[in-house]
Amino acid sequence: MGETTLFNQILLPVDFSPCSNEAFRIGCRLARMSGSAVVVLHVIDMSIVATLQRLGLSAVPSDGAAQRRRLRHHARSNLRRLLESGEAKGVNCARLILEGAPFMEIAKVARTQPIDLIVMGTYGVRAGSVDKLFFGSTAEKVVRTAGCPVLTVPLPALLNVLSPEKGK
Question: pLDDT tens digit string along 131-148?
Fold first, then answer.
């Protein structure tokens, strides 16, 4: 076993939220320290597109192909921004854009590629929706289904709110 790194490949699922950006930052730092390669994954949640169409909130309900193109363009430009950021400097990064249910696609990538660790954001106790209560957050579902270690990263501001003595 001539392995020299603890994690050869780290999966960083991103949704471009502040919490996700914090997980990206931590994941890149961990990759630099351990010499790991990184796969940055964004999953376009098609169920949201379908819901918007059903509610009549999309530009043209029948224009699903154009919406998909816009979402892919948005994902590509946001991924490019992340990969060109100072956080990614010196990290061997690959990008991947998929469509589907985020937790399912994240778990599928973790199981079908040589992923040693997933680093992803979690909103923790701040997200108290009914959906989370009954179905769990994306991070919780990934922890249960990924088949590899998962490091969940909360927002630093949330950590300070939950334990104010930590900041002293």
Answer: 444 445 888 888 888 889
- Percentage helix, strand, coil, to 5, in the chain? 50, 15, 30
Q: In this predicted model, what pLDDT tens digit does every residue of 73-100 receive, in sequence order? A: 999 999 999 999 999 999 999 999 999 9
- CATH number at 124 reads 3.40.50.620
Across the chain, the runs of DSSP E, i.e. the strands, are 9-13, 37-44, 93-99, 117-121, 150-153
In a domain, 4, yes or no: no
Total domain count, the chain: 1
Distance CA 16, CA 57 (A): 22
Mean residue pLDDT of the chain comes to 81
Q: What is the domain range of residue 153? A: 9-167
